[in-house]
Design a protein that fits this description.
This protein is of the alpha/beta class. It has 9 helices and 13 strands. It has one domain: Alpha/Beta hydrolase fold, catalytic domain (Rossmann fold), CATH 3.40.50. An 11-stranded mixed sheet has the order 1-2-3-5-4-6-7-8-11-10-9, with helices on both faces. A two-stranded parallel sheet has the order 12-13. Helix 1 packs antiparallel against helix 2.
Length: 423
């Protein structure tokens, strides 16, 4: 069935259920329809005319051993090994540290260099158990050298190994000696394994999934030498929307944010609003926190942001990428202590496989002076991928929801991140 027609039918049925007071049935109908519609599509993004919505990974083919595939990112990365800690290691302080953590590779529970490990994670107050994450430790990790840390948030129905395989982030991170953390969303928290970016309880600091994800970051920081000024977050689709939320709520933790095919923080506050935002972009009233019963985020300068979005995305409309950039520029213009204006530079190009793109770079106004030859700081980049659907650009075909034809989003995100240490 065509996605647009299916969505209209779904909206009509769900609206009737809501009006009749059957809220649980409405939510279940939406989740089942979305799951059934997207499970039929494979890795490659379909053109917009096809109405495909490849938000979910395909079911394993016959003979496929397991959806938990071994990542092929680097030859020296071992198969995932589960480490189940009976007692969690000491958590980091509630406030993000202002200096690099001491070397912690000698911690008895620290994962060894050159490993990709699945870790069982315990955290007070969790609604769903158990929780796990995967951690990639580069082979060059030492006890004496603080490392960057990249938090990677998968899309719906993906898992950490699938996401690591598709993005190739482990392979890209190895030469930079960066740790990569992949949280796993259990199906007990969301039937399709989505991060719940649209629920009010998961949209604020020190609560819900944002607090869980930051606790995982601090868990890694407690056992490995992490440079606290170089902690970053990126995500795809629902993971991208959650990455945007983390950037808004924890600018003191994350030095920069990457969003691929995602939505602006606060774009929706319920399932119906999420569907509407995915189809057309968020409505202006969606960002009124008081109307949704959510405490307003602190007025802090947002972290630098890099956005990738296909202009033929049939699942999350490309207008959402524009809204992400607009929100960052607006926050900079109204930041405490005096607003900052930006200057836009436009670059057009093609990937090595021929896919066109438009890259807009936003730098703080002012430019270099005679006394200072340094360029103006870049605060945002917006990559519009022409003809691209809902898939990670330049990814590996071994993972779900990737478009190998596209520009290398992984490499560009990592480049952007390392150009932007916090502070």
């Amino acid at each position: 069935m065509d996605w647009n027609l299916n969505l209209k039918r779904l909206m009509g049925e769900a609206t009737q259920l809501v009006r009749s007071g059957h809220l649980a049935d409405a939510t279940r109908a939406i989740q089942q329809t979305l799951g059934g519609a997207v499970a039929r599509h494979g890795n490659a993004p379909a053109p917009a005319s096809a109405g495909a919505t490849p938000l979910q990974a395909p079911s394993p083919a016959a003979g496929d051993v397991s959806p938990w595939r071994r990542t092929t990112a680097t030859e020296d990365v071992e198969d995932a090994v589960v480490i189940d800690r009976s007692a969690p290691p000491p958590q980091a302080d509630a406030q993000a540290p202002t200096t690099s953590r001491p070397a912690a590779n000698h911690h008895p529970q620290a994962e060894p260099p050159g490993s990709f490990t699945r870790v069982a994670f315990a955290h007070p107050g969790l609604r769903h158990h158990p929780h796990h994450y995967h951690l990639y430790v580069p082979s060059g990790a030492t006890a004496d050298t603080p490392m960057p840390l990249v938090l990677m948030l998968h899309g719906c129905t993906q898992n950490p190994v699938d996401f690591a395989t598709g993005t190739g982030m482990n392979d890209a991170a190895a030469p930079t000696n960066a740790l990569v953390l992949y949280p796993e969303q259990p199906h007990s928290a969301n039937p399709n394994g989505c991060w719940n970016w649209f629920r009010p309880g998961d949209q604020h600091r020190d609560g819900g999934e944002p607090a869980l994800l930051v606790a995982m970051v601090r868990d890694v920081m407690a056992r490995h030498p992490v440079d606290a000024q170089r902690v970053y977050v990126a995500g795809l689709s629902a993971g991208g929307a959650m990455a945007a939320l983390l950037g808004r709520e924890y600018p003191d933790v994350f030095a920069a944010v990457g969003v691929h095919s995602g939505l602006q923080a606060g774009a929706a506050h319920n399932v119906m609003g999420a569907l509407s935002a995915m189809k057309n972009g968020a409505k202006p009233g969606a960002f009124d926190h008081s109307a949704a019963g959510i405490a307003s985020a602190p007025a802090l300068v947002p972290p630098p942001l890099i956005v990738f979005h296909g202009d033929a995305d049939p699942t999350v409309h490309a207008h959402n990428g524009e809204q992400l950039i607009e929100a960052t520029l607006s926050a900079l213009a109204t930041a405490p202590g005096g607003g900052q204006t930006t200057v836009e530079t436009v670059h057009k190009g093609r990937s090595t496989s021929g896919q066109g793109y438009t890259r807009k770079v936003y730098a703080l106004a002012g430019g270099p002076s005679a006394a200072n030859a340094l360029p103006s700081p870049v605060v945002a980049e917006h990559w519009v991928l022409h003809g691209a659907g809902h898939a990670w650009a330049g990814g590996h075909a071994g993972g779900s929801h990737t478009d190998p034809r596209g520009v290398g989003a992984t490499q560009e995100m990592l480049r952007f991140f390392l150009e932007h240490p916090r502070g």
